[in-house]
Amino acid sequence: MSALICGSMAYDTIMVFHSQFKRHILPEQIHILNVSFVVPEMRRDFGGCAGNIAYALKRLGGEPLIMATVGDDAGPYLAHLDKLGINTRHIRVVADSYTAQAFITTDLDDNQITAFHPGAMSFSHQNHVRDAATGVKVGIVSPDGKQGMQQHARGLAAAGLPFIFDPGQGLPMFSGEELLECLSLASYCTVNDYEAKLMIDKTGLSLDALASRLDALIVTLGSQGSRIYSGGKVLDVPCVPASAIADPTGCGDAYRGGLLYGLLEGWTIEKAARLAATMGAIKIAHRGGQNYTASRDDIATLYAGTFGERPW
């Protein structure tokens, strides 16, 4: 059985400026800002929430099925997925558009200036869950075009499929009423601590009240681990120590790949969250969202080092 992963696919272009922005941006001249940064270092990574989640799930031995929209320039990304053995039949190419792209410039203080072009992501509503529901056991609605996220949530619910609502960086697009609709359709929701506070502000409800609408609400807390609200109880899952801290980009997506694997296997949400934490620790030690190559045995060994038993 597969996990249907609805969300964005993007190219991430990361550039490193070998100085500090504050030395070149004059506060008193901000009204006529005109600066140029020479960036000797540059790399281009495969990214986007759906792509990163699918990558993590595939490394675990799960079967991801991506539903996304990409542009005419998606050839290298599609070839990358084919090489990994990830099914691409529900990735729609939108003619005369670019695949979503993030252009990130980082200075020596790790400050970042980012420009994001949504491109084909804005057409995610052209995909329909009903066309992909056969053979699917669980789904996730991750950041994408707003209309597409709402449509996919309704489509998964209509198909009777449990799914994770993962609003992520798309959360500010939603009103409180729209968030509550998605939560009423979902079985699970996962957010980070900042997003959790924003969701409280938008809906006017506490985390306990929001969790009462779901099988489980999972809040990630960075180095403090994660917290599960389920059945009127709160469960803390510790962070798994990482071998290095190289790049947090895509850690949340790796975490969600672990959750999906656990749900596919019929695990408890606690065990799934433990595996999710393990995947986040592996990812953070590598730059980019899809550049880690841990085997299932590597993953099981790291899991056991924190939780005292192997996951399989």
Any descriptors?
312 residues; alpha/beta; UDP-N-acetylmuramoyl-L-alanine:D-glutamate ligase; 9-stranded mixed β-sheet; 4-stranded mixed β-sheet; 9 helices; 33% helix; globular
Protein described:
The protein is α/β, with parallel strands linked by helices and 312 residues long. The protein has a single domain (2-15, 40-305), classed as Ribokinase (UDP-N-acetylmuramoyl-L-alanine:D-glutamate ligase, 3-Layer(aba) Sandwich). The protein has 9 helices and 13 strands. The protein has helices at residues 49-59, 75-84, 146-158, 176-185, 193-203, 207-211, 251-264, 269-284, 296-307, and strands at 2-6, 10-16, 41-47, 64-70, 91-93, 100-106, 112-117, 136-141, 163-165, 188-192, 216-220, 226-230, 233-237. The chain has a 9-stranded mixed β-sheet, with helices on both faces. A 4-stranded mixed β-sheet has the order 3-2-6-7. The longest helix has 16 residues, at 269-284. It is globular. The two termini are 18 Å apart. The model has no long low-confidence stretch (mean pLDDT 96).
